[in-house]
Amino acid sequence: MPRPQPAKSPEEKRKSAIKAVARYSGMAFQLLGACLAGVFIGRWIDSKLHMERPTWAVFLTLFFMLGSLYSLYRQLLYDDRHRK
Prior knowledge:
Layout: H1 10-48, H2 55-83
C-alpha cells in the first residue's frame, strides 16, 4: 500500500514545475533537432546524387522524426514509472 506523500512547500512546487517545463521543452527541441538533421543530411545526399526530387530529404526527415518520437515515448514512460 503506498504511503501518503507529505504536502510540498510552495518552493518545492515551484522547483518541480520548473524542472517539468525544462524537461518537456528539452524534448521539443530534441524533436526539432532530429527533424532538422534529417532535412539537412537528406538535402546534402540529394545534391551529391544530383536527384531532381528531395527523396532522401523526405525519407531521412521522416525516419529521424519517428526515431525521435520513439525516444520521447520511452523517456515519458521512464519518467512516469519513476515518478511514483
